[in-house]
Amino acid sequence: MKNPVPQAASLLLEKLMLLVHIRPLPAGSGGETPPPAPGYYDTSCFKRGDLLEVPRTLFIHFGIYLGENRVAHLMPDILPSITSDRRQIQQVVTNKRLILGVIARTASVRVDTVEDFAYGGSILVNHMDRLFEDQVLSSEEAAHRAEKLVGATAYSLLWNNCEHFVTYCRYGAPVSFQTDKFCETVKMIIRDQRSVLASMLVGLASIVCLGVAPSTTLPTIFIPFFLWMAG
């Protein structure tokens, strides 16, 4: 029988990470903010196969440049699982589609313009190359891998997100440093005996996210969870 504690911890982390992947809307806005007009970004410095990185406030979004103002990137999206209409799927992913995609664990590797991909954010080019040194694949190989994966795919905030996609394409190994950093941060909070309040908040979040019955005692829930995270 599988240990339910690691599975519960994984689910909790995914629920928390969902909160930082939602694209915030401007105050008073009733809909999605339109992306910048074409030509907003200077794409002359981008080369086919480049890894594009867009830092956000709480997370980073990644894509592979395919040339001609096109970027392949992985986005959680519910539509590929309920329709085959390419025109609908190709429309810019809204927060509602994104959230439902995360819940349903469905996504798509889509090709968008640089403007739609970056959504007004600044773009870093091949910023992760320094972490992989000699593992960088050829530009054409990276672009070819990205193009081959275009279409519907499974999704996981922790195990199969946009960073896993680009690191596989450009470096040959699907990894996510921001996921690792997030998991380590949660572990540090739980390990630190002085962070009682933070631990309580994580505990309350787990009750909400995991649907723990009110009759279940807190020690029964959290002692095994803390032991596993500290291991």
From TrEMBL:
Annotated keywords: Acyltransferase, Cytoplasm, Endoplasmic reticulum, Endosome, Lipid metabolism, Membrane, Sensory transduction, Signal, Transferase, Transmembrane, Transmembrane helix, Vision
Keyword NAD: no
GO molecular function: phosphatidylcholine-retinol O-acyltransferase activity
Name of the protein: Lecithin retinol acyltransferase
Pfam families, sorted: LRAT
Calcium listed as a keyword: no
A Gene Ontology term for the protein's cellular component: perinuclear region of cytoplasm
Annotated ranges, domain LRAT: 51-178
Family that this chain belongs to: Belongs to the H-rev107 family.
Pathway annotation: Cofactor metabolism; retinol metabolism
Stretches that traverse the bilayer: 196-229
Any one GO biological process: vitamin A metabolic process
Catalytic activity of the protein: all-trans-retinol--[retinol-binding protein] + a 1,2-diacyl-sn-glycero-3-phosphocholine = apo--[retinol-binding protein] + an all-trans-retinyl ester + a 2-acyl-sn-glycero-3-phosphocholine; 1,2-dioctanoyl-sn-glycero-3-phosphocholine + all-trans-retinol--[retinol-binding protein] = 2-octanoyl-sn-glycero-3-phosphocholine + all-trans-retinyl octanoate + apo--[retinol-binding protein]; 1,2-diheptanoyl-sn-glycero-3-phosphocholine + all-trans-retinol--[retinol-binding protein] = all-trans-retinyl heptanoate + 2-heptanoyl-sn-glycero-3-phosphocholine + apo--[retinol-binding protein]; 1,2-dihexadecanoyl-sn-glycero-3-phosphocholine + all-trans-retinol = all-trans-retinyl hexadecanoate + 2-hexadecanoyl-sn-glycero-3-phosphocholine
UniProt-annotated location(s): Cytoplasm, Perinuclear region; Endoplasmic reticulum membrane; Late endosome; Rough endoplasmic reticulum
InterPro entries: LRAT, LRAT_dom
Job description of the protein: Transfers the acyl group from the sn-1 position of phosphatidylcholine to all-trans retinol, producing all-trans retinyl esters. Retinyl esters are storage forms of vitamin A. LRAT plays a critical role in vision. It provides the all-trans retinyl ester substrates for the isomerohydrolase which processes the esters into 11-cis-retinol in the retinal pigment epithelium; due to a membrane-associated alcohol dehydrogenase, 11 cis-retinol is oxidized and converted into 11-cis-retinaldehyde which is the chromophore for rhodopsin and the cone photopigments.
Enzyme active site: 162
Signal sequence region: 1-27
Membrane topology value: Single-pass membrane protein
